[in-house]
Input
Amino acid sequence: MTSAGGVDGSPSAVSESNFLRACRRLPATATPIWLMRQAGRHMTAYQDLRQQHSFIHLLTTPELACEITLQPVDRYGLDAGIIFADILTPLEDMGLPLEYTEDRGPVLARPIESRGDIDNLHVPAPDAITPYSLDAIRLASRELHNRNLPLIGFAGGPFTLASYAVEGGSSRDQLKVKALMMSEPDTWHALMTVLSELVGNSLLAQAAAGADALQLFDSWAGILSPADYAELVLPHTKRALEIASAAGVPLIQFGTDTAGILDLMSTAGVDVVGVDWRIDLLRAWELVGPDYAVQGNLDPAALMAPIDQMLARAKSILDSVAGRPGHIFNLGHGVPPNATEDSVSRLVDFVHEHSAVPVPNA
Ligand code: CP3
Output
């Protein structure tokens, strides 16, 4: 099959894919769809591999990470792959050892407590940040390009990484990281400066290895007041994206609970703004303005509802933006681990069918 404007597997076929066209707000033959956390957890094929290997083994073995990246793309006919990696692994290359535990999720051996801890961190050169994931990107981008599909690379936003670095693991209320940011602004800015360089370098290296678009997961930024976000986070996010922008590929920024800061987030230097389900998608698009593409925003819980309920919600999102160029369909956060493959499959097919632009004389 040849997609519009290019020969199979050629660079132009990939750049003319519906996903990359939507990133540039160009019309697509159907609304492109990919799903955050599409690789892994909910898929039987992943669970089978996970029975045999630890998460970290899967992440650090490029052939396996490539295979897991392709699993959802081939199973569902998604419009893009996202590399099977994690936002936290770059912290290790900076001097913060990390362990993925079965019961508590990711845990840092030595969380940041003082200015001295920050002075011990270093920013590695781009090629030295998660080199195993860069190898996985080389393999997966080749495979996806053969299918005329793009690959998304990603990193955590500096705030979300700072949250893990200071809290030492997942945290509901983020009180430690907020206390540091509010009580020791110099220490805070020193930490965010190192993290923004790490994130920028990581994104740059991923694009050089073959990623066609880059997403910043600033998943927890919505926990901040707009004033704190603007002063204590946004300048560092801008710096990370400024470094990444040298790659010349579309940049996407995503966070949850961001209705109060979407207008600020969109000024960070991205092409696409990811939106969760707590705000109406069209309203979000009005807030960020017409110069951006938007990505979202089905409540992931809909994947657990009866199929007709899920599809009704997907339909109302598609109908609300009415095929306006620059909409990338996604969930408002990741695919839940207990979503069924049948629900995901029905969602992807529905989005494609409902949004397909009739081809003249077809
Ligand atoms: O989207 C994808 O399919 C690509 C892979 C991906 C993973 N993590 C793999 C993973 C992506 C994009 C991430 C991002 C990520 N990781 C975020 C931001 C997005 C979000 O969900 O808000 C965060 C906060 C993390 C940190 C992290 N990694 C946590 C909290 C956990 C444990 C709980 C969980 O979410 O599963 C991980 C482990 C992790 N990362 C798994 C996977 C597939 C599960 C590992 C397993 O099999 O046990």
